[in-house]
Specification:
17 helices; 10-stranded mixed β-sheet
Amino acid sequence: MVSNCMAFQSTTFLKHASIKSQTIHQLQLSPHDNQHENSKEATGIYVHIPYCRKRCSYCDFAIVPIGDQHKSDKALRGFQRMDESYRKAITTEIDLLIQSLERQSDEHRKIEKVRLSSIYFGGGTPSLAPLETIQSIVDRILAHDGPFYLDDEAEVTIEMDPGTFTKDHLISLKQIGINRISLGVQSFDDKILEGIGRVHRNADIMEAIRNIQSVFGDTSANYSLDLISGLPGLTLDLWEETLKTALTLKPAPNHLSIYDLQIEEGTTFGKWYADHEDYEDDDDDGITVENARFKSTKDMTTGDSLPARKGSNHLPLPSANDSAEMYKMASTFMRKEGWEHYEISSFAKVTESEGTSCKSRRSKHNQIYWKLNGSWFAVGLSATSSIDGKRFARPRNLADYAQWVEEQHKRGQGVNKSPTFDWMPEPGNSHLENNSEIISDTIMTKLRTIEGLDLNWIASEKNGEELLQCVMRGAELGIELGLAQVSSPGSANDKGTLRLTDPEGFLFSNNVISSIFAELP
């Protein structure tokens, strides 16, 4: 049975499709003459869709809980009004972004196209958005006369929760151009799912996988699973079963994002487990110096599971030792199965391609974040962009975001021919010149990956030799403990590469990185 909300999504999409018949594939294959020759390295766009059915007990993300829309016509109409308002705001922001790029091109007297390797719809739960909203955003980004075009092997990803989409809805998303799914599973155990405040259950997960198989096929399905270790009620045996279940799904995922539970202040879990210190956020968006500082939410002096606040009947947290074992188990198990542990929380399936070469199914969007001096665009509530070294985070509140977009719109219509929007570096002043921030961000991001930190790059920076000594002094204890290692230099002038070991170094990455930061000038 299709809910009123899903029926609304399908109906509005069909109406919209009669007006906007172009799909993302048609836009992707459109000719751009010879202008591509002037395009820069491929980048990506993050699009934030904040809708969620409810706030999960561990969640502190910028979301808008919308409840169960099929309960009443009044609730559905309220959601429709909110979505129309948000769609207007986010498409206006996209228009302003395009305006800023086109004006920069005019100043340089050439049209410079922007090649995209990724469009990523994150949230929230973007699968709750009406299809018309997703279509409108894609149309705006990939307009024929706009600056953006898709790389031939680009990924267009949407985050989806089990139980939030039907087969028909997924077919429509595929027609729009979605070619990769990030499925928020978290656990296959119904008791644990209920305990952490998730709406879906195991049956919903299996139904979602069947829908993916039906729409994309066994061999063409491109999807990732999100799993969380350290959840209340999770044991080592259950965690091993979770990993095995993930890899026996048909079709199988080609990417896994595995996170350790973080207890955040202000969340339901923050209240339930208030007697324990909080974790700092360490997810894929945590690319800040502050997030490198390690705190444990679990008692490091005991191997016992830790109960919730006294008097409650909530599931106990695993001990710190068991949580650490879960991380090591995931790394060991996945690598044994032939997967690549390419980033602290990310695993990619390795498949054979032509001849004897192999292909790693890394997330193209993640790869943008880990690039040296990487830049990416972002639109929507709370979304963070990085353009020429300038990081900018949009407002987290829906009303504040709408007001901010309106302010940017007025700025764009002002008398100034080349207005500077909030996400843009000031003309002639690249934020890449802020050397200390770039150094810190690079150390943080590169040490999260198997590629590691290129010490030759460190040495090439301003005061590089002194900086290199600081980095090595900060990493000294980690190296002694076997948490980090330096690759053998290939020549006399080669400084080598500093890498964290897997899994121990990754597990204590915050400690190693914090020690390095403490030595930086």
